[in-house]
Amino acid sequence: MVRKICVITGSRAEYGLLRWLMHSIREDPELTLQVIATGMHLSPEYGFTTTEIEKDGFLINAKIEMLLSSDTYVGISKSIGVGLIGFADALNNLAPDIVLVLGDRFEIFSAVQAAINLRIPVAHVSGGELTEGVIDERFRHAITKMSDIHFVSNREHEKRVIQMGEQPSRVFNVGNPGLDNFTNLKLLKRNELEKTLDFNLAKTNFLVTLHPLNASLQNSYIDAQELVNALDEFPEAHIIITKPNADAGRKDISNVFDNYCKINSNRVFVSSSLGQLIYLSALNVCDVVIGNSSSGIVEAPAIKKPTVNIGNRQEGRLKAKSIIDCESDCKSIVAAITLALSQNFQEILKGTNSLYGKPGASEKIKVALKEFGIDKSVNKIFHNIEYDLD
Fold first, then answer.
1. What is the pTM of this model?
2. Fewer CB near the terminus (10 Å): N or C of the chain?
């Protein structure tokens, strides 16, 4: 009997990590791919990125509108409730054998709640990771406890998921599927990227993404302003900026970036969503990745690019030697960028590798999904670890 796998995606970045897994599922005669798009994919503010999914040849079986325009904690909380209603109907109609989700976003948290109440097993990618600077940290671990099968990116994350009481036989250390892009995508060359963006690169180029620090009360506007003040200290650099995710505080950051681009249109390019091919091509040609995106932690080290990681959003993640942590004030950011551009640091980069596995995760996940024994009961056995508490 053909097994139905329903992949749920709510953002451009998440889809970029899932794309090759979705392709592998679709091409397997023993599996049927179902796709639910939600969150930022359906928002004009983020470029209606459902078109990107469809352009890649995937049929979207359901679209769940859940994002409110409110840029507040209350708005996010209400969005979770709206999403829960939509996912309940969609999953009930599609009746998948397994729901597959990735990461720690509130949209995914909402989807998983609906799935477990419908007795649909959940497969979770990227559990066991830490992002202590944002509320998503709690969503990730909650999703782990609601899931039935786990695909993690390294041994430390595997141990952490087991520590949370998950059965070792259901935890698979496969690596990060996002790294599959480097073997499956033909990245744009420098001149191709310039033509695609209609933007000229310079001798020195930065790729910038700043998300709100939504686990704290820090002012997103101040964080963004400190960053652009730091970028002003490198007037020779050309800068590609991608706007933040749908988190509380995002509008303040986006407004700062838009205004900065207006003032510096000859050397600054801003986009709501570049898409995976263009984003990774920009990552490949840039000299420094700047901000607090997970791509600076996971993908950038894989191609030996330095990352200036601002603030505590990525606190707790495993970090390669190519990553420079700094505070969110202008002076600290300038010092970190200067270090990243130095000749001594360029030597350090030569020995850098990603700590999140190697390409090939998508195929490993697909095989496990085929072989996983489906249990639609509500029972879940807690795996105890014996500790010496004396």
1. 0.87
2. C
